[in-house]
Amino acid sequence: MKDAEVVCRQLGCGKAVSAPEKAYFGEGSGKTWLDDVGCSGNESSITQCSHSGFGIEDCSASEDAGVFCSGDTRIRVVNGDNSCSGRVEIYHNGTWGTICDNSWDMNDAEVVCRQLGCGKAVSAPEKAYFGQGSGKTWLDDVGCSGNESSITQCKHNGFGIEDCGANQDAGVVCSVDSSIQLANSSGYCSGRVEIYHNGTWGTICDDPWDMNDAEVVCRQLGCGKALRAPQEAYFGQGSGKTWLDDVKCCGNESSITQCSHRGFGIEDCKASEDAGVVCSGNMKTPSLVLLTTNTALLPGESAEFRCAITSHRPVTANFRLYRNQDQESETKTADQKMMTFSLSSLVSSDQGSYTCDYYYQGALTVSSPKSNAITITIVSLVRPQISAPAGEVTWGQSLGITCSISTQHTGGSFTLKKGSFTEMKSTSENSVTFTIHHADFSHEGSYYCQYQTTVSNRKFTSPQSNTISVSVVVRLHLPRINCTAPEGGLSWGPSGLEITKGYSFSITCSTQPQFPGGVFYLSFSGSNSPMTQPATNHSASFYFPAANYSHQGNYSCVYRVDVSSRHFYSTETEKLTVTIREFMVPFIAAGVTGGVVFLLFFGLVCIFWARRKQTNTRQTTWKCTRRQSKDKDEDEDQDDYENVEMEDQDDFEDEDQDDYENVEMEDQDDYENVEIEDQADCEDDDQDYYEIVEDYMEELDTGLEVENIYGNC
């Protein structure tokens, strides 16, 4: 049980409950180092008890020893290199808390090391050397004599009575193997090498001390790799006996006493030849802190990092800052526990994930693990773009204005601005469209936009975009123009509208319903000033009571409307050509009269020729009948009166012949006279008729020319 008591104390597990034998917890697979162990129960380490020597045994694996401890865990060390170094914390009232470093010294550390079951106290670090604790400070002004079995047995102000800050947490560095220690060091895992033999601590001579010897010591102490093997009492001269001289290790031994040496106490050295070591220790992971207030930064700004370690060896430490894990950014060397790295005038390429580590340069380089990572973001917002389908919008219509930006920092918002007008829209994309509904003149002006986003709780705003000008216009429908003549006298000719002179007519301008009211302008090619009429039911009529040649020309309409005290004009209509022509009734009457006279004359001529022909026919018939009757009488009287006839023939024939000739001549003269008179009259009538027809045709031609003139209007 005494052996178990020492083990439980060394483990910091309270009192020994039992000491099981015969591989109660199973057989070990390694070497058996101790046999015939005999402890008095007061030792702080099992190796301080009497035993046959390291590795000297005659046991089998079935004889492995074990312990049952009470499990007293009222003290612990935190954030150290091993179980025997770190910030001291005790358990009280159900909570773990720290010890204040007021009056903290090696006697206090000795009690803690003994209570932990570790070796000798190496150092008693102050000022939160192993980092600040997060719990309550249970003890302050602790004063131990060094012989107490528990830190709570030492003098103190009482549990929870303290006036300390978190940066005053106390710590300890204890040796792991109680048979070896490092003395006179400012930190754990470096110092003058001392071994415990025959109940006394003594030194090792530096003949011929080298890195292989230091490597064994560092391994035996649980301090990692050997960085240096200082000689000539680098850590000061020891006051005890020199136990070993001419130590020669291969480097793979588990204890310095296993190396070749002249024997315990056999030496020819001076105190100025004490050997020392600097070990890497179980290098703790450093912590990286960004001293700048935010991880999101603008180009040109600066960032400052601090890489810190919880323990430090008395050798130069090299700190390295990395960007994106593998790319070394900067290396600095310092004989301290922390290093500050400053990055000035940041650019986009400085963006990334930063870590740090540290290393000690010895026979070989031993590096710590990399620290926590801190990512900084360089937020460079370019000028956004603004666009619209057109620079103008029709009154009452809608217009879309699009803002966009090329950036990886999406999820922000765009702001559209014009004077005092501001509208904001959030979006998860790179662009957003602002819609102006029912545009009016208040929407006119120059617009620009900006992009805002939040990165790492910091707001960033882009530069202003370029500007676009938006104008609101009133687009009026094209009016219509037409002409009416309520009294008639209107027709369409080849060249356009024809209106008879003297007739009234109206020209009407109209437009589709769009705005109430308005004014119509009627422009005339023959006047420099347009006529004006207010619009009634979207139209206006211009009345002309009597058409005359001054009205002949081109007419067009323009519609004007006033919106918000602004005048807007429609596009001018196509030209309406108006031609004024003469009234045609007198010409038509003259033509009709001439035609009637011509017809009457033609009828008279026809009647005359008919009568003349009839007269000729009658004369011819009368002559023939008279000749036939004469012949018949001659035939009848020929026989009876033949003689008489013959006698009187000459006389009769002469008389008849004279009578006939006279009558015939008279008739012939009368007929010829009548014929000549009729012929002269007929020729006179024909001449008059032709002159009348010719005059009519001239008038008719004159009418056609006038009609052609009007047709060209």
Structure, described:
This protein is an alpha+beta fold and 713 residues long. The chain has 6 domains: 1-69, SRCR-like domain (Mac-2 Binding Protein, Roll), CATH 3.10.250; 75-175, Mac-2 Binding Protein, CATH 3.10.250; 180-279, Mac-2 Binding Protein; 287-376, Sandwich (Immunoglobulin-like); 385-473, Immunoglobulin-like (Sandwich); 480-581, Immunoglobulins (Immunoglobulin-like), CATH 2.60.40.10. Helix content is 22%, strand content 31%. It contains 5 helices and 42 strands. The strands form 9 sheets. Strands 34, 35, 37, 38, 40, 41 and 42 form a 7-stranded mixed β-sheet that branches. Strands 3, 4, 5, 6, 7 and 8 form a 6-stranded mixed β-sheet that branches. Strand 30 (445-455) and strand 31 form a beta hairpin. Helix 4 packs antiparallel against helix 5 (642-711). Residues 620-683 and 699-713 have low confidence and may be disordered.
Count of separate structural domains: 6
Tell me the fraction of residues in β-strands, as a range: 25-35%
Radius of gyration: 71 Å
Shape: rod-shaped
What would you call the structural class?
alpha+beta
CATH architecture of the largest domain: Sandwich
- The N- to C-terminal Cα distance equals 141 Å
Per the CATH scheme, the topology name of the largest domain is: Immunoglobulin-like
Fourth-tier CATH superfamily name of the largest domain? Immunoglobulins
Helix share bin: 10-25%
